């Protein structure tokens, strides 16, 4: 070629990000965020990311993850993933402070200032009533969904977080987390963690306030009724005291319950009623919430480990043919056309016998180009788009070449398009060779390339696996 610099070189691109053999939850989360961003902002420029994904291999999900990791937008989404905790931290702190204030206020309200006896029924209702009601709603929501989960606090939190996270790409990351929970059918456990954490904060604060007030003030305890018999309160107290008594906590007996129904409190019974109030809050409030919080956390972590991308979603289904060409499953070409273009038809331009030409065919980004140990004058650039393919064919048709060496990314499986292009390029060179650049660990793919190149009648001695052999052949004088 008289002017090899006219071949356009591919613009510099970012280095390939090659994920681990098995995708992690964070990588799948990133892929979901990429899917949502493309649904919102349109498809990304992913030519380089697709090549990286095909070179990395693996099943369709692994290639989708690799593609997502190599997109230009991935860095911003990864940053948003890491920053989401800092973004929601002020909201979480404010919510926990409100929960703590509610617990302290509830304990102070039910006990009062000590100037009047504490109504036992009202005290227990004030400390445990709403907790029991919301707990029942949460449990019912496991089978009869209330909104998106059985957690009213979780739904409120989700609503507030969505309103405060409208800036992109953070909104995509947040929405992707919710989509993962929905697809994994784990929204119940995901939002349940928040609900139980808030209630645990409320009840623990109430317990601390209860301890402080009982330790610093003198309270009497009574129950009052107009129509219920005294036996009702005896049975109720015995039922509530069943678990505390089994743990050795002093609780009121039947006589103490009847005494509390009088007009004045009995001093000797104060410790028993205080013990019942504190133990009921601990055993029927704090302990169940703590256990359910641990259960929700375990279930959510389990859902994260089991989560896999839903490959039936339209966005992923559209990527299948681009990430999993039919050729890769069989090694060489899938069935179809009966005959590839003929190799070296011999209609190059005369007088180009001494021209040397080195081209790169769809190399991945981690293979440096041009190679440092080849003469720069031989470099005819990269072919990795339809435009550069037409330009390369036009230049070769015009100038021809004595020797044409085509560098191939051997980590990719050979496909009909690549083999047909090699055959087409060879028509404009006196002699053509193929250099398997970037040899993979999988020797099977090397064999597939040899078989594919043989199918277009490229001589085996013109297929090189080492850099030195390819360079020596390119620079050797014509016979």
Automatic annotation (TrEMBL):
Keywords: Membrane, Transmembrane, Transmembrane helix
InterPro entries: DUF2868 (IPR021296)
Stretches that traverse the bilayer: 88-108, 120-140, 197-215, 276-298
Keyword Membrane in record: yes
One Pfam family it belongs to: DUF2868
Name of this protein: DUF2868 domain-containing protein
Organism: Denitromonas iodatirespirans
């Amino acid at each position: 070629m008289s002017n090899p610099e006219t071949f356009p070189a591919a613009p510099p691109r970012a280095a390939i990000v090659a994920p681990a053999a098995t995708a992690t939850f964070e990588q799948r989360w990133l892929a979901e965020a990429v899917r949502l961003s493309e649904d919102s902002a349109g498809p990304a420029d992913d030519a380089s990311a697709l090549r990286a994904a095909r070179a990395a291999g693996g099943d369709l999900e692994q290639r989708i993850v690799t593609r997502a990791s190599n997109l230009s937008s991935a860095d911003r989404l990864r940053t948003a993933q890491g920053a989401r905790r800092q973004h929601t931290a002020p909201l979480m702190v404010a919510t926990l402070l409100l929960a703590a204030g509610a617990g302290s206020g509830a304990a102070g309200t039910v006990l009062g200032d000590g100037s009047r006896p504490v109504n036992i029924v009202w005290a227990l209702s004030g400390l445990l009533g709403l907790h029991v009601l919301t707990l029942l709603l949460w449990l019912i929501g496991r089978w009869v969904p209330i909104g998106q989960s059985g957690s009213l606090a979780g739904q409120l939190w989700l609503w507030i977080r969505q309103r405060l996270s409208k800036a992109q790409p953070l909104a995509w990351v947040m929405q992707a987390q919710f989509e993962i929970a929905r697809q994994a059918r784990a929204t119940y456990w995901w939002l349940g963690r928040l609900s139980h954490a808030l209630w645990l904060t409320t009840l623990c604060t109430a317990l601390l306030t209860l301890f402080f007030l009982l330790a610093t003030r003198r309270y009497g305890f009574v129950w009052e009724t107009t129509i219920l018999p005294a036996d009702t309160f005896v049975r109720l107290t015995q039922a509530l005291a069943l678990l505390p008594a089994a743990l050795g906590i002093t609780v009121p007996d039947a006589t103490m319950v009847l005494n509390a129904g009088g007009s004045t409190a009995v001093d000797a019974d104060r410790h028993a009623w205080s013990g019942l109030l504190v133990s009921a809050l601990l055993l029927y409030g704090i302990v169940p919430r703590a256990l359910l919080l641990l259960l929700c956390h375990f279930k959510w972590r389990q859902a994260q480990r089991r989560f896999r991308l839903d490959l039936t979603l339209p966005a992923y289904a559209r990527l299948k043919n681009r990430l999993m060409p039919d050729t890769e499953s069989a090694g060489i070409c899938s069935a179809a056309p009966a005959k590839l273009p003929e190799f070296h038809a011999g209609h190059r331009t005369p007088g180009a016998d001494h021209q040397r030409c080195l081209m790169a065919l769809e190399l991945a980004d981690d293979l440096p180009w041009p190679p440092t140990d080849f003469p720069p004058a031989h470099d005819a650039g990269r072919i990795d788009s339809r435009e550069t393919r037409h330009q390369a064919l036009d230049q070769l048709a015009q100038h021809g070449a004595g020797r044409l060496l085509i560098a191939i990314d051997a980590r990719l499986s050979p496909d009909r398009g690549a083999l047909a292009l090699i055959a087409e390029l060879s028509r404009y060179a006196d002699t053509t060779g193929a250099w398997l650049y970037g040899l993979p660990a999988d020797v099977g793919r090397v064999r597939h390339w040899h078989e594919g190149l043989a199918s277009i009648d490229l001589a085996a001695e013109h297929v090189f696996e080492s850099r030195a052999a390819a360079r020596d052949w390119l620079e050797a004088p014509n016979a």
